[in-house]
């Protein structure tokens, strides 16, 4: 995207110029996977067939999985995304938990509260889906960002890489 | 796929008296939900219909969701459990991540390495399912336990309760 055009925009216009919506198959050509690669250095481009296959896997989860994207209407590129999946449990009276994953805002589109809008969209979705809580893992550097979104630090994340 | 074969390797007599296997509907009557209530004070008993409904929800996820239980053959009670679900991503070349949740060992059965056996079973399962990593959230007090299971502290968990 063109950072100069972004600079000329007024803040209040962002809802119209940068609307949030569900991921669509056509977003592959709009840089969705490129955007994710800003999140994980090990990300690699996907073939169109692999993209469609993964899209179908996730669509089969129905309302229990949502990927939201923000398309810049000027550049036609995906500049922010995040996802939430709903985990169905036996505890808490067969309760549900929302897991937020893979929130990223394009480096050129930062400073416009897009991240907060994405996180709010996902938390609202989890709440409407009947989750009793929504959780996510992040680096310590992102704690204050998520605190602004209403989250509190609770536990630690442990990882085992294969 | 079958992750069970991985768990049958484990040492000692406990293998026979305390075998690990997938959750079955009949485990409701063997105290499975009671065991989970040791994990979350807000857990409540489930009716048989609610248990079956949740069981069916999870069975529909196929190999992407596994609940393992340990039934004490002497008492006929479920004394340990844990679950893992496989998240399918677009990043890392359409990679997969295993999420471990709800690991608990009955207070009366601790000190017999059941927790480690459960975690090993779940991590073996995630690896065999093609995950590039397996992650979990826990309190700081459990860090050394999970380090013994091969995990490393990585990030922080943030939570928002509704």
Automatic annotation (TrEMBL), chains A, B:
Keyword Lipoprotein: no
Bilayer topology annotation: Peripheral membrane protein
Involved pathway(s): Nucleotide-sugar biosynthesis; UDP-N-acetyl-alpha-D-glucosamine biosynthesis; N-acetyl-alpha-D-glucosamine 1-phosphate from alpha-D-glucosamine 6-phosphate (route I): step 1/2
Primary subcellular site in the record, as a coarse category: endoplasmic reticulum
Enzymatic class: transferase
Similarity annotation: Belongs to the acetyltransferase family. GNA1 subfamily.
One BP annotation, GO: UDP-N-acetylglucosamine biosynthetic process
PANTHER family to which the protein is assigned, alphabetical: GLUCOSAMINE 6-PHOSPHATE N-ACETYLTRANSFERASE
Subunit record text: Homodimer.
Catalysed reaction, written as an equation: D-glucosamine 6-phosphate + acetyl-CoA = N-acetyl-D-glucosamine 6-phosphate + CoA + H(+)
Species: Zingiber officinale (Ginger)
Keyword terms, alphabetized: Acyltransferase, Endoplasmic reticulum, Membrane, Transferase
Subcellular localization(s) per the UniProt record: Endoplasmic reticulum membrane
UniProt GO cellular component terms: endoplasmic reticulum membrane
Pfam families per UniProt: Acetyltransf_1
One MF term in the entry's GO annotations: glucosamine 6-phosphate N-acetyltransferase activity
InterPro entries attached to this UniProt entry: GNAT_dom, GNPNAT1-like
EC annotation from Swiss-Prot or TrEMBL: 2.3.1.4
N-acetyltransferase domain segment(s): 18-162
Record's protein name: Glucosamine 6-phosphate N-acetyltransferase
């Amino acid at each position: 995207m063109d950072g100069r055009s972004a600079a000329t925009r007024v803040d209040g216009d962002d809802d119209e110029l940068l609307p949030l919506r569900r991921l669509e198959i056509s977003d592959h050509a709009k840089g969705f996977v490129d955007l994710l690669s800003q999140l994980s250095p090990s990300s690699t481009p996907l073939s169109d067939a692999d993209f469609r296959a993964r899209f179908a896997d996730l669509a089969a989860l129905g309302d229990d999985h949502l990927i939201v994207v923000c398309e810049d209407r000027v550049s036609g590129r995906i500049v922010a995304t995040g996802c939430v999946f709903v985990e169905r449990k036996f505890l808490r009276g067969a309760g549900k938990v929302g897991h937020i994953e893979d929130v990223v805002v394009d480096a050129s589109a930062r400073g416009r509260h897009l991240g907060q809008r994405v996180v709010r969209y996902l938390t609202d979705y989890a709440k409407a889906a009947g989750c009793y809580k929504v959780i996510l893992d992040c680096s310590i550097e992102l704690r204050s960002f998520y605190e602004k979104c209403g989250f509190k630090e609770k536990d630690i994340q442990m990882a085992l890489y294969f």
